Amino acid sequence: xxxxxxxxxxxxxxxxxxxxxxxxxxxxxxxxxxxxxxxxxxxxxxxxxxxxxxxxxxxxxxxxxxxxxxxxxxxxxxxxxxxxxxxxxxxxxxxxxxxxxxxxxxxxxxxxxxxxxxxxxxxxxxxxxxxxxxxxxxxxxxxxxxxxxxxxxxxxxxxxxxxxxxxxxxxxxxxxxxxxxxxxxxxxxxxxxxxxxxxxxxxxxxxxxxxxxxxxxxxxxxxxxxxxxxxxxxxxxxxxxxxxxxxxxxx
Length: 251
Fold this sequence. Notes:
Layout: E1 2-7, H1 11-24, E2 28-34, H2 37-47, E3 51-55, H3 63-69, E4 76-81, H4 87-92, E5 97-100, H5 105-142, E6 146-149, E7 154-157, E8 162-168, E9 171-176, E10 181-184, H6 189-195, E11 200-204, E12 207-210, E13 214-218, E14 224-227, E15 232-234, H7 242-246
Parallel strand pairs: 1-2, 1-3, 3-4, 4-5
Antiparallel strand pairs: 6-7, 8-9, 8-12, 9-10, 11-12, 13-14, 14-15
């Protein structure tokens, strides 16, 4: 469905267009109507429609002036007027079409089909851009490394190398997949947020685990996680509901 708004200072024109759309263009749903340019601008900002049917000549402020004052034109426009001298301005505002009153049914149907194609293309472009952005984000994240300051050096470790973290007072121990253990003088909560986007789950006040290394979730004996290296990590009472739900997305 195409969400549309109609802006025209004459009620009979709005009613006529609404009736024609209902009968000949059922893919259009009218989300709102306005009878002057200022109210129309507010309606557009509020509803963010796909399509705007806009009368050009209105008292006080015409349709072109309203479009100039709007900061963003994310919608398609079908201009409607009783005069035929506005073609150049219609092109300037990238209008889908320019219809003369009284409306011709076939011309209206053609204009709506044009708008439908444009809207569909924009949606596909947005989906493609979202996909490309997701890919870019993943590529950027794959290069991220966590800085772990120790007494002698600062180690730079990729999150996927970390099996788990364990805290003891203000110290956090990082256990890596090559068997290395790194001690850092920072509390574990400082790393919980940093590692949240890399598949780590806080299963206990003292433990942060990489989900990629979890072998099983054991419910007996208070509940604990078994890791691929055989480590058993306790699950606190407060996490017994959260952890299983988190592990649904495991690997």
